[in-house]
Fold:
Amino acid sequence: MQSMDVKNVVIVGGGTAGWMSAAAMSKLLGSKKINIRVIESESIGTVGVGEATVPHIQYFNRLLGIDENSFIKKTNATFKYGIEFVDWHKRGESYFHSFGPYGMDMEGIHFHHMWLRQQQAGTAKPIDEFNLQIQAAKAGKYMPARPELQGSPLSALSYAFQFDAALYAAFLRDYSEKNGVTRIEGKIVNVTQAANTGHIESVTLEDGECIKGDLFIDCSGFKGLLIEETLKTGYDDWSLYLPCDSAVTRLSERMAELPPYTRATAKAAGWQWRIPLQSRTGNGYVYSSQFLSDEDAIESLNKDLDTAPISDPRQLKFKTGIRKQTWNKNVVSIGLSSGFLEPLESTSIHLIQTAIARLMTNFPDMSFNQPDIDYYNERTKAEYMQIRDFLILHYKATTRDDSPFWDYVREMDIPVSLEKRIAIYKENARLYSEDKVLFNHSSWFAVFNGQGIHPQRYHPIANFLEEKEMERRMAEIHTVTQKCLSIMPSHDEFLSKMI
Ligand code: FAD
Structure:
C-alpha cells in the first residue's frame, strides 16, 4: 500500500515565522522521517520588526530546549513584565497591563471584586500597589518567579522578552540547520498547481531550480505568496475597527537604565512604541493614514525619541485582518501571510507559535482531510477575534477628543462580542474567559480599569466577607506585595549577571 505520509515540507520564507516553524517542526517531527526545506530571499528580506513578546514564548523556547541565558545573550534580549499605556484614556494619565495577577483571588471570586468593594467604599489603595509586577516594572526591578514560594506573589512572576527580531531568526536558523533543515537561498518566481485539486505541487526559483513539496507552509509575509497570490483565498478586513494601517520605525541608542517593560504612548493618529534592548532601543509610530501623512508621522516619531537615533526611519504598510482560510488545500499560512493584528499587545509572534502548535495537533497526511482543515481554520479565527476585541477596547474606551482619529475610534461601531463583554463588565465587573484564551480576566481588568470603564457594582459574593476580615486581608496582601518588591534586584543588575 502506498504511504499516505507527508514526506516533503516546504517552508516559503525565512522571517521569524519561517524559522520558528522550521525549528519547531524539525524538533517535533525529526528530520530523518521528513524533509524540511526553507526557501528565503535575501534580496526581498524580512519585515524586520517584532521585538516585544508575551510570556508564552517561554514555552516555545523550552519546547526547543533553548537555554535562556544563551538566548538572552544572542538576541540582546531584556525581560518584559508588561506594557505601560500612556495617554490612552486621557492625556496625562497612564496605566500598566502587566503579565502578573492582582492580589489574590478569595472566596471563589477574582481579587478585583474585593478591590472594587473597597473602592466604592472610598477605602481602597491604588490598584497598582496590589500587583507586584507593576510595582517592579515602575521601579526598574526584575527577577524570575520562585515557584517554590507557594502563595507568595514571587511565585507568580510571569515575564516575556524584548529582543532583536533579526537575531532571533538567525538563532532559530542555526538551531534548525543543526536539526537537519535545509535552507535554500533564492527568489520564487513561479508556482505550479495540480490540475485536478489545485494543490501546490512546486515552486520555481529565479535560477530555474524547481522545489516540489507535499505540504507548503506559507511564511512569505504580508503578500501571502501561496495562500493569496496563488490560491486567492481572500481576506477579512478589520480596519474599520482597527484603522491603523501604517508604521514608521526607527532604532535609537540604548537607554541608560533598561526598563523591564514596553511603553505604548497614544498620539494624535495612533500610538508610539518604545522597546528597550541591551544593544539599542526599538521605536515605532503606528498610525492611520486616513488621519496622518507619512511625512508627519516621521516628524512626530523623531520628535518623541527618548535616545538619539541610530538608523534611518523605515516605513511599513499593513491591513488588519485575517485570511478567510489560514489553511487552504495543502498550504498553511503562518505569520504575516495569515493575517495581522497591530502590535499594540505584542501578539504576532504568539500567533505564529499557536499556529505551529495547532498545525502539529492537526498534522495532515496526503488525504488533507477537510474536517481537520476546517477545525484548524475555526480555531485560528476564534483566537484572532479574541485578540482583535481586546485591542479594540484600548481605542474605544477613551475620553480623548483632541484629534479626528480619537473622535473616530471613540464613536466607531464595535463587534457584538466586545459590546457584550463591555456591557457585562459595566454592570457587575464580571470577566469571562473562554477556553485557552491569551488574555485572561486580569488582562481585561487592567485595560477596562486603565481605560476608565468603571462598573456599577461588583460580584455580590464580595459582600459576604465580613468587613474587618476583608480589610485585614487586603492590608496583608498590600504589605506582602511591598515586602516582595523590596527584595527584588534591579533589572540591569539581574541582566549584568546573566551576560
Ligand atoms: P517576513 O518577516 O516578512 O518574512 C517573509 C519571508 O518570506 C522573508 O524571508 C522573505 O525573504 C521571504 N519571501 C517573500 N517572498 C519571497 C519569494 N518570492 N521568494 C523567496 N522568499 C520570499 N510581532 C510581535 O510579536 N511583537 C511586536 O512587537 C511586533 N511589532 C511589529 C511592528 C510592526 C510595525 C509590524 C508590521 C509587525 C510587528 N510584529 C510584531 C509582527 C512581526 O514582525 C511578524 O509577525 C514577524 O516578523 C513574522 O514575520 P513573517 O516571518 O511572517 O514575515
Summary: The chain has a mean pLDDT of 96. The pocket of flavin-adenine dinucleotide is lined by residues 13-18, 39-41, 44-47, 49-53, 165, 187-188, 219-221, 225, 247, 284, 316, 318, 335-337, 343, 346, 348-349 (CB under 6 Å). Residues 370-396 form the longest helix (27 residues). The two ends are 55 Å apart (CA to CA).
